[in-house]
Design a protein that fits this description.
Elements (H helix, E strand, L loop, with lengths): L1 E6 L5 H5 L4 H8 L5 E5 L2 E6 L1 H21 L4 H11 L16 E4 L5 E3 L3 H12 L2 E5 L6 H14 L5 E6 L15 H5 L4 H10 L2 H9 L3 E5 L11 E5 L7 H8 L7 E6 L13 H9 L5 E5 L9 H26 L2
Parallel strand pairs: 6-10, 6-11, 7-8, 7-9, 9-10
Antiparallel strand pairs: 1-3, 2-3, 4-5
């Protein structure tokens, strides 16, 4: 049996503990071998070391939720408990690596961070309001970002999700596709729908889309908007120009967060130098509240050959750049 004291100095203890300490009592009920006592702005934990460590992480997460919302609900506490408890008598679901679970999907499935940089993205998104996730295709950047957005919506940390992509087509012209504008862009936004359908029941997702709780829009439609209490994702950001990137980043309003994903090697713009994603790193790296998470071939979660394909293309581009450098240098 071990004792641990947590000092609450980044949130109002009364709001964190709940009326008559009801939030603490709920956490305590999920850990039968642990005793939780509140004294002033301190929480005293007594129990097995592993359980105390998990409760400390739960309290840290509850503090984040409280600071973002200004209050805690019973649903907030249940959501956080579900993310961090496991099936060893702690009232959770058996077999989960709870530390890396992002959100629970329909049917009891779990969406979790599976690679080191996916885990880094999850941790960074909980600490920063704007995170850039940059790396090759197939590394789970977009999927993890959408899971974080759905988790935030379920925990009532935000009131809506806005998913966006630049309307730059890879080798096609949208004008030649049949249908009205919505019918033209919907196939282009399909990967975002696919991710949402994995994480939300179909009827609930349909309701969210109808009520604009979840919006999926081309980047051009973001101009002039202010997004409050929203989790905003810009996907395929390598296809955003400098001006579009600045426009997107300045849409964020109060209590909003953003994740920007992209692969600078796959831009459909005439020149990579025109990519707002490339320029954003040069301008914004080091700004407090903004973080950059880099993905590489080790994070690929698609077919095993995708890693080899990415490596082969990287070698090819490096050799090309070296050859061009020798030509520019002259005799």
């Amino acid at each position: 049996m071990e004792e641990k004291r947590l000092t609450i100095d980044k949130a109002e203890p009364l709001l964190l503990f709940g009326f008559n300490d009801q939030h603490l009592r709920r956490v305590e009920s999920a850990f039968p071998d642990v005793r939780i006592t509140a004294r002033g702005n301190q929480i005293i934990l007594q129990g097995p070391p592993d359980a105390l460590h998990r409760i400390e992480r739960i309290i840290d997460e509850l503090v984040l939720v409280l600071n973002r919302h200004g209050h805690l609900t019973e649903n907030d506490v249940e959501t956080v408990l579900a993310l961090f408890t496991v099936g060893d008598g702690a009232g959770g679901r058996p077999g989960l690596d709870a530390q890396n679970v992002v959100v629970f999907a329909p049917g009891g499935a779990t969406i979790r961070a599976r690679t080191p940089n996916q885990i880094r993205l999850v941790e960074s998104a909980r600490k920063n309001d704007i995170v850039f996730a940059v790396g090759p295709a197939g590394t789970g950047k977009t999927y993890t970002a959408v899971a974080l957005a759905v988790a935030a919506l379920k925990a009532r940390q935000v009131k809506k999700i806005v998913l966006s992509r630049p309307a730059v087509e890879a080798g096609e012209r949208l004008g030649f596709l049949p249908g009205d504008f919505r019918e033209k862009v919907d196939p282009y936004l399909r990967p975002l729908y696919d991710a949402l359908e994995d994480m939300l029941p179909r009827d609930k997702l349909a309701g969210y889309l109808e009520q604009n709780v979840v919006e999926i829009v081309p980047l051009a439609y973001m101009r002039g908007r202010t997004l409050n209490s929203a989790f905003v994702i810009l996907d395929e950001a390598q296809n955003a120009t400098h001006l579009q990137m600045k426009m997107f980043l300045t849409r964020l309003g109060a209590n909003s967060r953003a994740i920007i994903t992209g692969d600078v090697t796959q831009t459909d713009l005439p020149s990579r130098a025109q990519s707002g994603l490339v320029q954003a790193r040069q301008i914004l790296e080091g700004v407090d509240g903004i973080d950059f998470v880099s993905f590489d071939e080790r994070d690929v979660v698609r077919h095993r050959l995708v890693k080899d394909i990415i490596k082969a293309y990287e070698r090819f581009h490096q050799e090309q750049e070296q050859a061009e450098g020798r030509e520019d240098a002259g005799p």
